[in-house]
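User: Okay, second chain of the day. Same drill as before: sequence in, structure tokens out.
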Amino acid sequence: MQPAYSQLLAGYKPNRRWRLNQARRRGLRIEPSNDIDQLVRLFAENTAPKIYGLIGEDYEYRMLRDLYAQAEKAGMAELWQARSSADYVIAMILLFKFNRKIIYLFSGASAAGKAAGAISVLLDETFRKYATHDMCFDFEVHDVPGLIEFYSSFGSKKAPFLTITADRLPWPVRQLKAARVALYRRLRPRPAANGA
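Assistant: Same drill. Structure tokens below.
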């Protein structure tokens, strides 16, 4: 993110710049936060129901809260929120700073936040804040076509990365864990086909 903000903005796709201008007209207020529970609520109420197999409070959300608490203690976490003109928190993003990287780890937005383009404004404010810094922004996105398209509209480039997985649980515990996840996924209701 070494270029000046104006150069970063020029790298956005024209449609992203237009949408960002539309979002900025909504009078959103961007501010720091430390309310990880609000972020979890936004995600749990608005995005999680569309993700088949998400365990939520029993596993992922608890892990996210613990990760945030440790990263915040170490000065590595930033949590930002967008407030509507009616003073409601409508979107939040969680960033980690590590080893000259800013990692976009997690986000949540209400229906109003999505309609207002609040995540775009939050990301743009991050780029504005860190422009000219010797840091790399990592969207940390999986191969989900809609997400890849959204993030690439900010001028990002796809970069390969290596992963290493280590599971040191004893074999019987690994089997129980796999069975638990499979059972949960089988018994949990699937989201409606229309995305509702």
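Residues 5-159 form a domain with the Aminopeptidase fold (CATH 3.40.630.30).

User: Thanks, on to the next one.
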